[in-house]
Amino acid sequence: MTDNRPRRTFAVISHPDAGKSTLTEALALHARVLTEAGAVHGKGNRRATVSDWMAMEKSRGISITSAALQFDYRDHVVNLVDTPGHSDFSEDTYRVLSAVDSAVMLVDAGKGLEPQTLKLFRVCALRGIPVITVINKWDRPGLSPLGLMDEIEQQIKLRPTPLTWPVGEAGDFRGVLDRRSGEFVKYTRTAGGATRAPERRMSAAEVEDVDAAAWSAASDEHELLTLDDADHDQERFLAGETTPVMFASALQNFGVAQLLDLLLELAPGPSATAGVDGTVRSVDDDFSAFVFKVQSGMNSSHRDRMAYARVVSGTFERGMVVTHASTGRPFATKYAQALFGRETTSVETAAPGDIIGFVNAQALRVGDTVYDGPPIDYPPVPSFAPEHFMAVSARDIGRYKQFRRGIEQLDQEGVVQVLRSELRGDQAPVLAAVGPLQFEVVEERMTNEFTSPIRLTRLDYQLARRTDAEGAQQLSGLRGVEVLQRTDGTYMALFTDKWRAKNVARELPDVRLDELPAGG
Ligand code: GDP
């Protein structure tokens, strides 16, 4: 049976330790978890991860894979797409943002905006993904709320439009003023935060009696915000000009139901999507989906390969045979259900916004489209500006064949970008990554899956710019610069630091040097 309930598909963007795992669990507690698609974290002694596929993932207690968690909330289905969240960053963290319709930016009240949050925010901005901001850990001493609003406006150029405003400063949290209804939502500390915190609402008159000073301070600031044009405006939010803000304590379960309500009320659902040739597929057309993540080697006893796809249009039915756009070949989806959890019974259908996983999907690559009905091919998932570079070679030259095959496979999966140059030769290409963790994945898989242990040598480059053949010539021989070619033909100029890149741009103004924030 087709499940036609509206979808909300979002990701949480945050810096490590802001509380993403805590919030995820709190959301799951409030909603009813339907399926766990290989998802969430296994930090400390918290609930173990569903996909503990790699020994490395287990030993480090982090989630390397990204998948989705699906909840039932009110009359909606909510898909939370997991962004791998460790101080080590990877391209997957960025790529999942191509599969969501909105993002929740989780900010630690004591720390404000942090580097990883900013990086992820930039990807959202480039893709036009509306962002809801949650200021977390308000139960602890932190920055002033107006100061935080300033910081958001200065650093990400979005106008913050708070929907709730804290009553009591950070660390002395009494509750929030609901700026749209004018009510007070009382904060109740719960033991360990493990239960669903009751949300008590009361009118302004009732609060006056209890918390006069804190309430009147919050009311004053609320009025200031209104005068400053900081009220929510749905159109401006969807246009990426403003970000609704709310204050929460994920640990204490405060604000969690409010966030779910906001997602339902304000965040956009799936919408019509254009293919590379401009053809537009509306959500109720025939089935189509695109792959945003491919993962292999989950089970060392047999080679498997999982491709995660986001449904763009139509209804997915288990077992249907679809067309793989890049080869034109049929693709059978009979194993599609296996993704959904360990003991969960198979999921028979999926709707636009849902994430499905195909097992044994040898043919599928990141960015590929699969469809039913008339042809459609969605634009490729962009690759992102790498910041870490390593030269790689086979430890045992006798295993060069395995080495080459492995590197080619990891390149195709998008685990790392592979860069080559005549100078370095084919036996020692350069691997480029957004985060250093990607190299560990390469090392592990080259050893265990492709049976060719590798040697990695760190290169002293910090950033890459896109250039062209002519630029490559002009740059060759300059100190602190090296030009290599990505497998897709793009010329990449690697620089030891940004000052050198700036200097070269100044001295050779004719050389093409594009920044690669995203979409490179
Ligand atoms: P992640 O790295 O973003 O997934 O962060 P975690 O969810 O693991 O949280 C990091 C730490 O902050 C943990 O010790 C949490 O218990 C704590 N934490 C998360 N949310 C809150 C909150 O709302 N209030 C307080 N006081 N601590 C929190």
Automatic annotation (TrEMBL):
An annotated GO cellular component: cytosol
Entry's Gene Ontology molecular function annotations: GTP binding; GTPase activity; translation release factor activity, codon nonspecific; translation release factor activity, codon specific
Annotated binding of GTP, by residue: 82-86
Domain Tr-type G: 5-271
Family as reported in the entry's similarity comment: Belongs to the TRAFAC class translation factor GTPase superfamily. Classic translation factor GTPase family. PrfC subfamily.
Stored SUPFAM superfamilies: EF-G C-terminal domain-like (SSF54980), P-loop containing nucleoside triphosphate hydrolases (SSF52540), Translation proteins (SSF50447)
Function: Increases the formation of ribosomal termination complexes and stimulates activities of RF-1 and RF-2. It binds guanine nucleotides and has strong preference for UGA stop codons. It may interact directly with the ribosome. The stimulation of RF-1 and RF-2 is significantly reduced by GTP and GDP, but not by GMP.
Primary localization: cytoplasm
Domain of life: Bacteria
Record carries keyword GTP-binding: yes
Pfam families from the UniProt entry: EF-G_D2, GTP_EFTU, RF3_C
PROSITE patterns for the chain: G_TR_1 (PS00301), G_TR_2 (PS51722)
Protein localization: Cytoplasm
Keywords for the protein's UniProt record, in alphabetical order: Cytoplasm, GTP-binding, Nucleotide-binding, Protein biosynthesis
Protein name from the UniProt record: Peptide chain release factor 3
GO biological process: regulation of translational termination
